[in-house]
Each structure stands twice: as structure tokens, then as C-alpha cells.
Amino acid sequence: MKLYKKDNFSRRNFLKTSVLAGGGMLIGFNLLTACKLNAKMPVDIANLNFNDFNAFIKISQEGYVTIFSPNPEIGQGVKTSMPMLIAEELDVEWENVSVAQGVLDTNNYTRQVAGGSQSIRFGWDALRQTGATAKQMLVNAAAVKWNVDAATLKASKGIITNQNGETLGYGDVVTAAALLEVPENIKLKEVKDFTIIGQEIVNVDIDKIITGKPLFGLDYKAEGMVIATVLRPPSFGQKLISFDASEAKKVKGVIDVITIGGKVRKYMESGKNNWTVKLSKSDKVVVIAKNTWAAIKGKKALAAVWENEGKLESTEDHEKALMDILEGKNLNTNREDGAVENAFLTADKVIEKTYHSPFLPHNCMEPMNFYANVTADKIHLVGPVQTPEYAAKVVADLLEFDLDKIHLEMTRMGGGFGRRLYGDFVYESAEISNFIKKPVKLVSTREDDMTAGIYKPAVKYSIKAALKDGKVTGYHLIEAAIGSNMFGAIPNFFPAGCIPNYKVQTGNYSSNITTGAWRAPYTNFLAFAEQSFFDELATELNIDAIQLRLDLLQNVKNTTDERIEYSGQRMEDTIKLVREKANWGNTKEGVFQGFSAYYSHNTHVAEIADIEIKEGFPIIKKVTVAVDCGIVVNPTGARNQVEGGVLDGIGHAMYGDFSFKDGKPLDSNFDGYRLIRMNETPKVEVHFVQNNNSPTGLGEPGLPPAGGAVANAINAAFGKRIYRQPFIKELNKSSILS
Amino acid sequence: MPNYTLNINGKQVVVSADEDTPLLWVLRDELDLVGTKFGCGIAQCGSCTVHVNGIATRSCQMQVSILEDVKITTIEGLSKDGKHPVQEAWKEIDVPQCGYCQTGQIMTASAFLAENKRPSGEEIREAMKGNICRCASYNRIEKAVLVASGKMS
Fold first, then answer.
1. Which tens digits make up the pLDDT trace of A78-91?
2. What is the span of the domain harbouring residue A646?
3. Which of A18, A85, A88, A281 is most solvent-facing, going by the fewest CB within 10 Å?
4. Cα-flanking dihedrals φ and ψ of residue B22, to 5°?
5. Is the domain of A124 the same as that of A158?
6. Measuring CA to CA, how many Å separate A144 from each of A137, A139, A162, A173, B24?
7. How far apart are the C-alpha atoms of A151 and A186, rounded to whole Å?
8. What is the tens place of the pLDDT at every residue in A490-503?
9. Across the interface, do B134 and A637 touch by the CB < 8 Å criterion?
10. At residue A695, what are phi and psi to the nearest 5 degrees?
11. Do A51 and A177 sit in the same domain of this protein?
């Protein structure tokens, strides 16, 4: 999942302006990229087509600001925090700012993706530059009107003031400003002068959410729209042979039953699919109905015959395949420092442990869905997808359409967690609409989502450490995973650079069960394995668990290794903050603590879990968290992300279990599959490290350390180590709690 | 298809639906009341919670044919202006992340607070455990129910 190049910003020529037909100013700008010289600005809002710009700001003659926010919202808060960056530099009252969701038309987009916790990190400079440039243009227009030097004017909260104390509102000069040249190299505010960044700004969609207004893809309706449900193979490794729709067609409201699959199959065989996920090549049976209930009932009434076209895999097969990889077969070496084998040969003691995790479904609360209307000359797509740009491109390929005839609108998303990075449901809805020549909304049930998922792969880690003279002298980690392996900078995360002899190897088992990104891909489980392991090493070395990490981090502080992107100093500061806030080592009797720290998605996080024992069972009472994400743009949104990430990490580490028998998932809904619930949640207390570094993302980094903190606290309480997720299964084995 | 007369948000409405259609889909597809959400379809997640005679009920399990003599309240009818104390508290605490499950959470919380005006934290956690929040905004939900309780008394 390579979504970006490191800090590759273009800061020049990134915006253009126009006068709106009804008065006011429209600013079009591009995040990260320069706009094309021939880029055209629309003169009215109805014609915002995002052909040449990926975001717009409208300033009306009344001084109101509307920001057409370019990034999809999946609950990570960017629809609130990104406009805050513009409003800060534009210098307007937040109350006068409103936000509308941008739409997607063509391929001239950059970074309109919700994934990798990168929206704020990449928007930080571009959005502030845009706001500051617009403000300067307004000031320049006022200077022309008053016939004074712009440098003598001040602007704040939407009002421009001259040296005589006279004032002009932004609305008074906005139309004139739109005609001025776009100034360059505008100076941005100092951190101390921020009035919006750092304030607690409530979610911009809050009123709509709490009153139940249509916001989500599933809420979307259009004239003449029908509903489609899709019957897919019950087991991975099967394909459709035949089906009988006679009972389904008797269901009142069912219009037709068709099959799709040919377009996706042709696309998959064309070799154009450069996304990591494998889509099923089977035909699928589609029930078309007047309403959702009829479509759901009709699907249940279908009788289909499936044939095995591949191996039908079970969890036992995966266990064996992954253990074989850990034995050292066909491994890639991702990073190797020093002489690892020698470190083990000369060690006083060698510790080796193996950690296990299952597949996990994403379980977004809003099931997958998408609206498509394919007509002779254009395609209209509406719904929740984390990768609108890519989805539109695939639909263009599938249906042999020009990309610029495709109009994709993003809705708010009822959760993403990585699942909506993959647009399989977009392609299906487009193929259905193309077939029936009608507007259609594809609706998945919970069972569809859970049993035909793109899962977090089952992953195992084997970690081995060499101990000599009270120090960790060697470290060897092997990852065995299904589908794909850790990517990007992950092999260079902690403890890379801290231990002289260090090796990370990965091996892969190719399965027909589809796997993909799941919130904090790979690190979501790697952090548990590694941070549990270091806790065990601390016990072995008879040193405080936190002190061991701090000692190791000293070794990376002056590294010249450019592959290492985490900071020894920032991690140390983060760890020290959580140590202080959680009263590490000074808790009241009956409270047991576990520590864990992890850097991911450019953010440093440290967590301490407090547990108590009730009737012989561990109850997680509190998790104290310290986070270094640089400047905190919106504290309430930021804390919400971290609180949710920690509880998500704990919930899945404790309860997340998903197995297969002969290619078929054993759970299909929340009666069997357990998600964390309110009565099981600890309090999460979040503290931010104060500094003026540029902000980094928060959608994912809170999650990875959580499982390790809890497992280490359980060890503190019971003296037993947990090596396998979900913990609940291990805890129910009497050997742990006895 | 038969017609049914339902009392929804204080209004009598006539809907034409198959008799086994769950209230959830009548609300969403026939009446455009889409604030009631589809999450699991088997009464395990609480996203579809409405009030039936004031009691928090999973609308995915209520067949339209048995609902003619009851009063149904959905999120759209919880308050005229979105200012029910529970809604106000949700805003004050800035509860939602993705927001999808929150209408169901609010409906469960408001029915609970009507019965138990001064609940303890433990009672809130028990009362709300039937509603899943996949973003795990649980700490804030708990806090918002407490704040709402303060506003109501």
C-alpha cells in the first residue's frame, strides 16, 4: 500500500480564483500538486466539477465561507480537522465556516484517499497555504480600495482594518479579490498565534448524525432506483454452476434475477488489476427488487449449485502452512544488521517465542453498499468508498467508459477500517446497473460482509533474542502471513537501530481467501507480539519493563540510517509521559499494570493498561495513553480517535476470532462473532506530548500498542504469558488463570 | 400488498408492505425515515433501535403486521428540533466517530433514562451493552448518558 512519497510537496501555483456569477469568490486548489496552466475555474457552484482542482473554497458576499472538503470521511474526523487548517490561516470565525463533501469526476486527483492515517500530515502545509493566500488576496483587494499599502492593513476574524481604524468585511472585497493575481510565498502563522488549530471543535456533521438525517451511502435514494442483493459462493474456492430462481421470483417485490461476474473476470484476466486484493472470478446471482426486504428475502429463496475450483481451506491448514513458514522456508529478508547468527552463538541465553493471530473481518457498522446508474453516455456512482479515484478507474475499465464520463459522489461512511479501500461492491453495482439499464443500489447484509470479506490475514510471528551481559545483543523476527507481508518502513520500526544484530524476515502463504488492509495493517498484531516479547525480556533481564525500552532507545537517537523514521527522542518523551500519568509502579493494591509502546503511521504512542482481578478473571479498568502526533489540530477529535483505536485494539485482541472450515467462515453475524461492548470497555485517558512538530495521523496509531499493554498487565497479575489472540480463549483455559 | 396504518412519531401513516416486512425496512424504504439504521438484521447490534410504546425495541425484528396498535417513535421524532437532552448531551460530549450507530445508541439511551433518571455508571454500561459501536466511542457514550441524565432532572 504505497500511498505517498515522503514529504513530496509542491508549493507553487497550487490555486486559482474566479468571481462567482452571483458575486463572491471561488478558490480552486490542489492538495500537494500544482494546478495545470490551462485549468479552468467554474463561475457558479452548480458547476463545481473537480476536473482541475481537488478542493474549493467559496467566500460569499456576506462573508460566509464554504469549504468543499476533498477527503472521504470514515469517522476519522478529517471533515472537521482539514477545514480547520484553512480557516485558521484565512482568519475567519469558525462559526461562519461550513463544510460540504467534495465529489469526484476524473483522474486529476491526488491523495483523495482515507487510509494510512495520512490526511492531516499531507494537508498540513497545503491547506494552510491556501487559507493564507486567500487572506492575502482579500487584504490586497482592500488595499486597492483604500489606495494604501497592503502591509499597513490587518485582518482578523473576517474583518480587514486600516490604520485609521476603518474596516471592511471579507465579503465587501471578495469579488474584487477574485480578480487579483495570486500572491506567492505567503508567510504562515506562528504556532503561538493559532486561534482555531488547537481548539475543541465538535464534529461538523454532529447535528445531522444525532437527528438521523440521510448521510450514509445506505441512505441514498434516486428516482427509479431498484435494490440489488448478491449471492456469492458460500466457500472460498468455489464457483457458480447453476441456480434456480423460481422461488425467489415468487417473492413479492422481486423484479428479476440475473448473474454478473463476466466483467470482473475479464478485468482480472486483463492484468490491469494492480491493487493487492484478489477478487472472486465466480459468477454471482443477483436479485433485483423494488425494496430492500424483498431483495433480502429473494436472495434467501435462491437455490444455487456451486463447484469447487480450488482447495477448500480450513483454519488447521493455515496453522500448518504458517508454522512451516516460521520453520524458515522461502523467507525474504527485509532488513539485516550486524551478525545475527553470531550473536545467538555467543549469547548467555536465547529466548524464542511464537505469537498467533486469526483472520479478522472488518465489520463496518454500515454494510457495504453502492449506488450506480449506468446510462449510454455517463455513469453516476454514489456511496461510501475509501478509494474513490481507483474505484472510478476500475469501473471505467470494466465497462469500457471514458473516465471523464464517470461522476462519483462520496457519502459519509459508516466505518472503514480498511474494508472500503477495496471497491469490489462499486464494480458489482456498476456491472448490475449496466446489465439492467436502471439505477440500482447494491445492499450487502451483515452475513454478506462477514462471509465474503477481505480479511485481516492470519499472521504468526516467531521472535528470538540473544541476551549477553544483561543486554539484548541479537534479535530475529520472522513473519508468516497469508496473502501479503509487512510493507514499507515496518521492518525499520523499533527495535531496528536499537539492537546491533538485527534481522527481519517474512514469508507468505498464498490462499484463495481474500485478505487486505485492516486498521493499522500488520502492525495491529506485530506490536502485540513484539511488545509482549520485550516485556518478557525485561523479566528475564530483571529490569523494569519501561527502563528496558528507554535503554534500548538511546542507541537509535543519533542514527544516520535514513530507513529509520521513528525518533528515539520522541518515543522516549512519549514513554516518560505515560509513565508519569499512569503512576507506573505506584498503583494501589490489587491493580496490575502492563506497558506497551509503538510507533506507526508517523505517530509515537505509549500505553499502560491497569487491570484488576474479579472472581479470578482479569477486568481491564483503565488504559493511560501518551501520544506524540505533533501539533494537535482538534483535541476532541484527536482524543476520540485514540480512545476508539485503543478500545478497538483491546476488543479484537480479547475477542476477535474468525475461523474457516472447508473454505467457509464459521461465523456470519454478531450472534457468533464477538465485538467489544460497553460493559467490557476500560476508561481510556489520553495525553498528548506538547511540541510544535507538524501534525501526523491518528486514525490508526492508537490501536497497535493496546493488545500488548493488556497482555503484559495480565502477566503482571497472573504470572502467565499470552501468545495467541483472542485472549478470551486463552483465559478460558484454566492453565492461565489458575 | 396489504395496507397497514401505523402511528409513527405522532402521525397516522398508511403503508403498503408485505406482512412480514420488518419495521426497519418500512421506515427506511417506504417512509424515508433513514435515521433508523441497518446493522445486523438479527437484533444483535442495536443500530435499528426505535421506541415502541416508549420501550427501546429492535425494529429489524418487528413485523409491520403486528404494529398497528402501538406508538412508534424513531430518531426523527425523538424531538422536534434535535434538542432532546440526550441529543444535546451527544453534541456536548462530541460522541460520534463514523456516526452510523449513534441514532440507535441515542434511542436506547433515551428510553433507558425515561425509566431510570439517575443511573450509575455501572447501570449505564449494562443498559447500553446491546448497542455495538464499531468505532468504540463507548467512553463518550457513557459520559453523554450521564450528562443527559443531569439535563433531565
1. 778 888 999 999 99
2. 521-733
3. A281
4. -65, 145
5. yes
6. 11, 9, 12, 10, 60
7. 12
8. 999 999 999 999 99
9. no
10. -70, 150
11. yes
CA angle at residue A546 from A540 to A548, to 5 degrees?
50
Indicate the pairing of strand A284-289 with strand A254-260: antiparallel
**CATH code where residue A276 lies:** 3.30.365.10
Characterize the bridge pairing of strands A592-600 and A55-59: unpaired
Query: What value of ipTM does the predicted structure carry?
Result: 0.98
> What single-letter amino acid sits at B45?
C
B/e letters for A20-56, b = 16+ CB within 10 Å, e = fewer, are: beeebbbbbbbbbbebeeebebbeebeebebbbbbbb
The answer to whether position A205 is within a domain reads yes
Q: For residues A204 and A208, what is the distance between their CA atoms, to the nearest angstrom?
A: 9
Q: Tell me if chain B has a CB within 8 Å of the CB of A683.
A: yes
Q: Max CA-CA distance within chain B?
A: 47
**Which residue in chain B has the smallest CA separation from A201?**
B94
Given a contact cutoff of 8 angstroms between Cβ atoms, the answer to whether A432 and A258 are in contact is yes
User: At residue A63, what is the residue type?
Assistant: G
DSSP letter, residue A79: H
Contact between chains at A412 and B25 (C-beta distance less than 8 A): no
**Terminal CA-CA length for chain A:** 44
Q: Residue with C-alpha cell 447535528?
A: A207
Pick among A101, A365, A639, A640 to test the B interface (most B CBs inside 10 A) = A365
Contacts of A195 (CB under 8 A, 6+ apart): A88, A91
Q: What is the pLDDT of residues A548-587, one digit of tens each?
A: 999 999 999 999 999 999 999 999 999 999 999 999 999 9
State how far the alpha carbon of A150 is from the alpha carbons of A453, A472, B77, in Å.
58, 62, 53
Inter-helix orientation angle B138-152/B102-115, to 10°: 40
A196/A241 same-domain check: no
Report the alpha-carbon angle A103-A90-A100, nearest 5: 20
